[in-house]
Amino acid sequence: MKNPARAASAVLTYGFVGLMAFLSVFPFIWMVLGATNSSIDIIKGRLAPGETLAVNVAKFFTQVNVPLVFWNSAKIAILATLLTLAVSSLAGYGFEMFRSRRRDGLYRAMLLTLMIPFAALMIPLFIMMGKAGLINTHIAVVLPTIGSAFIVFYFRQSTKAFPSELRDAAKVDGLKEWQIFLYIYVPVMRSTYAAAFIIVFMTAWNNYLWPLIVLQSNETKTITLVISSLASAYYPDYGVVMVGTILATLPTLAVFFFMQRQFVQGMLGSVK
Amino acid sequence: MVLARRGGIGRYYDVNGWLFVAPALGLIALFMVYPILWSLWMSFQSGRGMMMKFAGFANIVRLWNDPVFIKALTNTMTYFVVQVPIMILLALVLASLLNNPRLVGRGLFRTAIFLPCVTSLVAYSVLFKGMFAPDGIVNSTLQAIGLIASPIPWLTHPFWAKTLVIIAITWRWTGYNMIFYLAAMQNIDRSIYEVARIDGVPAWARFTHITIPLLKPVILFTTVISTIGTLQLFDEVYNLTEGKGGPSNATLTLSLYIYNLTFRFMPNFGYAATVSYVIVVLVALLAVLQFYLARERDR
C-alpha cells in the first residue's frame, strides 16, 4: 500500500534534483559546444559539435594578446592573494592571541566594514588612485583589496583551533613572537591558508568592476575585461567569446576539481 | 592607562598585539573607512569633475525628482524581493533532498549544482546572453517542446529582461547557498528526523518544523550576504545589456547608475556619491531588519 506513494516520491525527488543538476551543468556544455561552432550557429541555437574550433581559437589568438592578458590576470591575482593572506593571517593571529579590550573593540568595528558596498567606495578610490598617479597600473587594482575584513575574520575564527600549548612551548624555548608565527603557526595552519588562498585568488581573478574603472589601456587589461569587451561588440563573434570564457574559467575549474575539499571549506569560511 | 599599570610584560604583550594587527587595520582604514567617509562628505557637494562646492541637501532633493534613480531603485528592490527568497528556498529544498544518505549519486548531484560557483560573474553573464538570444538555444528548446509559440524577447522586453537577470543570478548562487545549508545540516542529529518520521510527520512538515528552525542562524547569514550582493548588482546587468541597463533602463541597478554617473556621463561625483549612500543605508537597514526578524521569532 505504501509502495506506490514511495515510488512516486522517489521519482519526484530524482526528477527534481536531476533537472536542477542538468540546468546547472548545461551552460558549461553549451560553452564547450559553442567554442566549436560559428557565431551564427551559436545564436541560432545549434546544439551539436561543429567544425570551427580551430578557426575560433585562431581568431581569439589574433584578436587578443593572450599571453599578455593572462600574465596580467595572473600577476594581479597572485599578488593580491599573497599580500591578503600575509596581512590577514597576521591580524587574525594577533586579534586572537593578544586579546585586549581595545583591540576587540576595533575588531568589531572592522567587521562593520563588511557591510560597505563597493559602489560607495569607487569614486573616492578612483580619485585617490588618480592623485597617486596609479591609474592604469596593476598596483591600483591590488592595493584596495589587500585589507579584507572577511579574511581577517576567517583567520581569527580558525586560530581558535590553534593549540596554545604549542605557543607556550615555543616561548619556553625562547622563540620571539614573530618566530612563533612564522615557524609554528603558518605550518600548522596550512589547510586554513589553502582554503583562504582559493577564495582570495578566485575573487581577484574574477574581479571586474574595479579593474574596469582603473585599467584603461589594452596593455594592462585582464582576461575578464577582455571577454566582456569581446561580448559587448555590436556583432559579437560568439565562437571567439566561448573560447575566451573557457580559457578564463579553466584556472578556477581546475582548482575546484583538484582541491574540492579546501574549495568548499574556503567558501564556508565563517560558518564554523 | 591600563598600559602603564601593567608594566613590562603587559607592555610587551600589548605592543606585539598591535604590531600583528596594524597592517590589516591600516589598510582597511585607508581603503575602506577613509573613502566611505569621503563619499559621505562628497554627497553634500555638487559640481562637475573635481570642481565641487557645498550644496547642502540639494543632492538628496535631486534624488526625489530623478526618474532614472527611481527606476534603478525600483529595479534593484525588485531583484532583491523576488530573487533572494526564491534562491534561498530552492537552496534549502535542494540541501535537504541531498542531505538524505539514501539518495543514490548525491555526491555527483552536489558537485553539479555547486559548479556554477566556479564561473566569473562576467563569464556566466556572457554565456547567458548567448543562450537567451532571440533564436538561441533557450527559445528554440522552449518552442520545440511546445511551451511557447513564438520566441520570448529576453533581452528587449522590460519584463523578460528583468526575468533573465533573476534567472541568471539564481543559476549562479543557488549552489553556493546550498553548500552552507548542507554544512549546517551535518550538525543536526538525524535521529530527530527518524523519530518524526515514525510519528507520521510528513516530509514537508519535517522540513518546515525541524530543518528551517534549526538552520535559522545560517539562513539569516546567507540572507544577509545575498542582500548585500543583490543591492550591489553590477557585473551581470552590465554584461547582459552592453553596459546600458536596457531596454530603456528596465534592468538598470543602483551600482550601474553610479558607474554611469561617474564614468559615462559628465562626471558628477557629488550626486553619484549620494546615490551610493542610498545603497549603504539600504544594506544597513535590511541587515538590521533581518536580524530583528530572526530574533523576534525566537521568543
Automatic annotation (TrEMBL), chain A:
Q: Where this protein primarily resides, as one coarse class?
A: membrane
Keyword Membrane attached: yes
Stated family: Belongs to the binding-protein-dependent transport system permease family.
| Superkingdom of this protein's organism | Bacteria
Q: Which Gene3D superfamilies match?
A: MetI-like
The species this protein belongs to is: Sinorhizobium kostiense
Give the organism's phylogenetic lineage.
Answer: Bacteria, Pseudomonadati, Pseudomonadota, Alphaproteobacteria, Hyphomicrobiales
Membrane topology, from the record = Multi-pass membrane protein
Record-annotated membrane-spanning stretches:
12-33, 76-95, 107-129, 135-155, 180-205, 238-259
Name of the protein in question: Lactose/L-arabinose transport system permease protein
Domain ABC transmembrane type-1, which positions? 70-259
The protein's UniProt keywords, in alphabetical order, are: Cell membrane, Membrane, Transmembrane, Transmembrane helix, Transport
InterPro entries the record matches? MetI-like, MetI-like_sf
Give the UniProt subcellular location, in the record's own words.
Cell membrane
UniProtKB/TrEMBL annotation, chain B:
Cellular location of this protein? Cell membrane
Q: Which UniProt keywords apply?
A: Cell membrane, Membrane, Transmembrane, Transmembrane helix, Transport
Domain called ABC transmembrane type-1: residue spans: 73-290
Q: Which PROSITE patterns match?
A: ABC_TM1
Record Gene3D superfamilies: MetI-like (1.10.3720.10)
**For this UniProt entry, which segments traverse the membrane?**
20-42, 79-99, 111-132, 159-183, 214-234, 269-293
Q: Which membrane topology describes this protein? A: Multi-pass membrane protein
Q: Which family does this protein fall into?
A: Belongs to the binding-protein-dependent transport system permease family.
Protein name (record): Lactose/L-arabinose transport system permease protein
